[in-house]
Each structure stands twice: as C-alpha cells, then as structure tokens.
Write a structure and sequence with these properties.
The structure holds 2 protein chains of 2 kinds. Helices cover about 25% and strands about 10% of the residues of chain A. Chain A is of the alpha+beta class. The chains are: A alpha+beta, B mainly alpha.
Amino acid sequence: MPAVVKVVRRRELTFWEKLYVPQIVSGLKITFAHFFRNLFLHTAHQFGRFKNFSAAATYQFPEELRPLMSRFRSRHRLTRREDNTPRCVGCMLCETVCPAKCITIVPGEHPDPNVEKYPVRFDIDLGVCVYCGYCVEVCPEDAIRMDTGILDLAAYSREAMRLDIHELMNPLLRKPIRECNLKFPHKCQLNGGQMTGSWDLSRQVSQVN
Amino acid sequence: MIEVVIIKFVLASIVFFAALNLAGFHTWVERKQSALIQDRIGANRADIFGFRALGMFHGLADVLKMFTKEDIVPANADKALHNLAPFFSVFFALMTFAGIPFGDRLIIGDRVIELQVAHIDAALLYIFAMLSLGVYGVILAGFASRNNYALLGGLRATAQMISYEIALGVSLLGVIVVYGTIDLAEIVRAQGQLIGGWIPKWGIITQPIAFFVFVTAALAETKRVPFDLPEGESEIIGYFVEYSGMKFGMFFLTDFLETIVVASLATTLFFGGWQVPYLMPDGFHFPWGATWLVPNWVYVLLGVASFSMKVLTFCFVFMQLRWTLPRFRYDQLMSLGWKGLFPISVANVVVTAILVIYFDGVH
C-alpha cells in the first residue's frame, strides 16, 4: 500500500492582505487600544480614580504579593490543640509517606493516656521538600497543614533551611530560637540536654551570624 | 564673519542637544510604551534620592553601565576598524541632522538666520549621502570583528539597506517633481501653499503613495522591527555581537538617531516641516477671511514647535509599529523591497510626472 501523503497547503493571502497596510492598521488598532487604555488608567490611578480597574497584568512583587489560591501549597505548619500543644500524635505516617524523606520525627510518650504519643522532635528539611503535600493528605489528626502562605524561603545555609518544631508550630518564628516556648508535655532541651534537635542553640547562632 | 561662526555653532548645539537627548529619551519611551502596550508597568526601579521619575533614570543608569563596562576587542579582530566602526555609525547619523530645516527664517535686527545648520541647496542629496554612508559603520563592524556571524549580520544589513535605498530614493522623486526643488527649506516653504484656499499643500496630500513607500523604506533603513534582520537581537545575531560597553551603546544610539532622522525627514517632506496650517510669515490667514498677525519671532517659534510636535508624533508612531509588527523573513523582505515598493514608487513617479504636466503645463 503506497504511503498516503496529505498535502497541507498554506492559505494564499488575499489581495487585501497582500497590501499590508490595512493589516498593519488593524494591528496598530489593538496596540493603540491597549496603550491608551493603560495610559488612561495609570493616570486615573494617580488621582485615586478607577482603582478597581487594573492597568497592568503584572504584580510589583516584593511590595505587592500575588494573591494565592486557597489550595496553594506553601510552607508547612503544625496545628495546635486548644491548650496550644501540638495535635501531632507522632504516628510517623507523614515521615513514611514523604517521597523526599525530608521529615524527621522523634516521638515521645505523652502523659495523657488518651493521646499516647507526642513529637519530641519534628524537623522538616525545606531544602529537600518537594511540596507534594502528601504529609497533609496522609495525616489522620489534621496536625500538619501547608497553608501559611509563606513563599519567600531563602537561607544562607542548608542548616537554616531545616525547620524544627518551634518554627513549624509558629510560622512567624525565625531562627535562632533563644528559649523554648512550647507547652507541656514538651521537654525541649535547648541547653545541654541529651537529645539535641536541630534547634541546638550554640550551632545555630554560629551559623546564622 | 565671527558672528556667522557663532550662529552656526549655536544652531549646531541646539540640534545636537535636541537629537541626542531625544535619542536618550527613546530608551525610556521604548521601555514604557512597550510596557503599556503589553499591559505591564515597565522599568521603574532606578531612583535618585528616592525619586523614580517614572523610571526615567534607567537611561542614565544604562549609560553609566555602558561607560564603566569592559571594552572587549576580540583577539583576531582588526583593532583599528573594530574601534572605528561604531564612530562611523554615530557620526553619519548625527551629520544627517545638519541638512534638516527645523524652522523658518529668524530675523534679528537686519540679520536673517536660516534655522538649518547647513543651508545646502541640495540638502536632500546630502541627507541621502549621509544615510547611505551609515551602512559603512555596519559592514565595517561585521567585517572587523572577524566573526562569521557578525559578518553575515553585516552582509544582511548591507543587502537590506542597498535594496531599500532605491525604493527610498525613487519614492522621493515624486516629491521633487511636485515641488520642483531638492532644497529641503524650499520644499517646506512650497508646502505652505493652499490647495483651493483650504487644504495645505503638504506632501501627504500631493504624494500619499510616496509617503507610504518612503516610511516603509525608511524604517528598513533604520534597521528596527519589523526590518531588524541585521540585528535580530534575540536569535539570529547581528553585526555587533563582538561589541561591548559604550561601543555597543553607540550602535544602539545610531538606531535611535536614525529613527529620529527618518521622523524628521517624513515631517519635512510629507507633513509640511515647520508649517502650521494657515500661518503665513506675517500671521494667520484663515480661509474664511479672518487674519491674526503675529511678530516674526512668534511665527518662527510656532514653526519650531510645530516641527518638534510632528517629529515626536512620528517617533511615537514608529515606536508603536516596532511593538506591533513581527519581523519579516529575509525573502519576504527582499521581495517587498524589489517587487513591491520599487515598482510602486516608479509607477508613482510616472503618474506624478504626467499629472504635473497635465495641470501645470510644460515649462
């Protein structure tokens, strides 16, 4: 069977199109319309008028943040119970499901027999995280969410990209952390304890400064 | 004698000041106009003591950057020619302005000053000569870089400019036939007449086809979009690949200067130069009979203002065209030049000649 060749011919230009000038004029009409519309709106904005019509499709980023969708996955946070202790029960599901293996949990025994466990350490290495959101999906306690809206994650070192439980519980907090403000049952050993987390003070101070 | 030198010096300074500043201003216009067309805001970060002035300082920042950048000359390049090429480019672009009349005769006491830097009776030929010499800067830049891409860019530019030069020249023959002179000042003066007492006898009225051919060919001469094949900033690499710092900046400046030259020429030849409709040397003479006399200096000032307004409008329209149209393919460029514009301009000359003889009779 011979190969079937389908010839696609380009449409010939009509005489009107070959004149160029009418086509150029119609193109100019579009650009002029945009130009004068935006010029008018920019001027009107200077006088505080027509503020709800935007003159540009762009955002002036550092000053003006882009609106985020409600399902947008941004930096993680750990939710709290009513008494401000973490909701996390240290079940390790998120650490297990994490494809990037960026979550480290050290569970401890909770004094309340109804709760069973709590996270002594909960570290997320944002330099490794792929923002897939599986940890949020898998959590049975709604203890971790990605709704802080924090996008501007940047640090001078890899260590500084590592969030510990203090920063995860309080998204406004930034390293170095001088003292632990977590509620009982948390026993955070900032100074010379046996179990040092990534919040180890002496190390962080030297890194940040 | 010394007064003549001083007067010429002052005139040249005024023209240089206006042309170079307008060229610098073009960088701002280019940024902001394109931004408005594309629903953006445009460069607005450079500031002096917190004043941003709508981003106008970006031009200054550019110049500072270009002057302080390292000037790299390729090891194999012909150093003398490589250095000479950008100066050639800018020099001829600036020389062109000398022939353009930007106002009528200014009378101070008993001295009559022509507002034209070089009062040449063949100013049109002079301007064409200078515009054509501009191509030497381009081809030298391509050749002296000893870079195949630069050389190809230079050859593209040369082929394009030579092709369009012909259409450009022939399109203006019609204008010369209508006004009967190649003295630009006289052409402008002739455009002050009225047709039927109402319509100014501007080139756009008497030679509309020549106007379109001229603007198209002249835009090709300026090597800007849609005819920017010699440069092809983003992909095909032009004749100035091997240039950096202010030498590159001079090629950039040449582009803007040539745009202004073309705008001035289009104004002078087709939009009555410094003519204001119904303004005669002694004042306004409206077609309904009213007259309003003005002194000579007001008349000249109005003329200069009219010329500047027209040039600025042309610059604006050229910039708008530059941000509206895509680039031509090279074969389309050549066929437009040789098969489109050239025959049209020749036909225009023939038809114009016949009409002129029919209406005016053989002298």
